[in-house]
Amino acid sequence: MAKKNSVKKIFVLDTSVILFSHDSIMNFAEHDVGIPITVLEELDNFKKGNDTLNFEAREFTRLLDNLAADHMLQDWIPLNGHGRGRLKVLMYSDTKTDLDAERIFGEKKNDHKIINAALKLQKEEPKKKVILVSKDINLRLKAKSLDLSAEDYETGKIKNVDSMAALGKSEVNRVAATTIDELYKNMEVSAKKALGKLEPINNCYYILKSSKNSALSFYNPVSEKIAHVEKRSVYGIKPKNAEQAFAIHAMMNPEVKLVAITGIAGTGKTLMALASALQQRRDFKQIYIARPIVPLSNKDIGYLPGDIKSKLNPYMEPLWDNLKFIQNQWKETEKENKQLTEMVNQEKLLITPLAYIRGRSLSNIYFIVDEAQNLTPHEVKTIITRAGENCKIVFTGDVNQIDTPYLDSQSNGLSYLVDRLQGQSIFAHITLEKGERSELANIANELL
Questions:
Q1: Which of 59, 126, 138, 351 has CB 3.0 to 4.6 Å from 22, enough for a Cys bridge?
Q2: Spatial distance between the Cα atoms of 226 and 354, rounded to a whole number of angstroms
Q3: What is the pLDDT of residues 162-185, one digit of tens each?
Q4: Please, are residues 421 and 384 in contact by the beta-carbon 8 Å criterion?
Q5: Residue 422 belongs to domain with CATH number
Q6: Which residues touch 304 (CB under 8 Å, ≥6 apart)?
Q7: How far apart are CA 199 and CA 169, in angstroms?
Q8: What's the total number of domains in the chain?
Q9: Which residues constitute the domain of residue 262?
């Protein structure tokens, strides 16, 4: 029998890892963890504020303070919990060596100090493998160019993100024509008849096909049967394909409290979500449509000209565009057009940055979170745990179009949500694949 590899590792964490997850130091099993002193300096800049990054920075500081209660941080101290390794704060070394990041890259930056701290540790611990862990791709590349092992923070990453498009719906061929006829007649049919040996998934959508006919359906966890899905219009918006019909059904289903709609730009994610919410306006006290603000060129919105409203308008404009599209289906003199204007004026319909609704109680609210791929798993969890009575939450986004520097298709909150909640009785997910914006937009998506 082969001996188990007993080489211990020391993981050196970058600031981006701490800001992604404050308890990341507890997720490296029996291996040791090093925190460069430069990371603590950078975290000091994040301790004030109400964003998730500020929360993570403060929580890490408290965690580190508790661990160091009876220890000096320049010594290796035990991490609490059975089977865990040790922790140490690494001092920056300005000793010039052949592998000095500041000299090689010609710039005094915190990133280079972090690399140098790891390189110093590598010399001090020759019998252990030192690995720099960072969410910053450029930092990892710089470390590897200096013969220092570097990798991404893997905890919470979704492994099967490439198959996410298949989640939420499935095409079932060779279904008996009589079964589909029964589905149309009785509005539901047994799962075994419709799916055969295929195991049904709660709120998963199925396109049933026989040699003669086809039907849209979903597995209803309440009746435990395959139920028929009708193509229905919502507030004047008609679904243009099966996936849009499924998305509308999920968002209109009162038994489903949480919905994730993924897909590329132009597939109608936000439009379907907004129209479905307006269709149910009488069932909720307010409709919130929010999106995270990702500053341009990594600069705060304070760099933009004008007052706070002027600064936020560029970020909120796509949401207003969808509302105007729905409103323009009717003339200004028609009831439906006036109704939308009244809802906005009375704040029954609120379009706002996501940061502005943090801390509010989400009771009797239909809540749409747009561009959710730019949220961390913790942010998604924070939003959902605010849900009160009669609250429905819809997350929309494209997991392959990330604007936040330290997130990717595997680690963002939307991917995490779909992966963890798929199959729950109050959750539904649909991927919209077909662009419906225009023929020109479709060609651009496919060929450019």
A1: 59
A2: 37
A3: 665 567 899 999 999 999 999 999
A4: no
A5: 3.40.50.300
A6: 296, 310, 311, 314
A7: 13
A8: 2
A9: 161-166+240-447
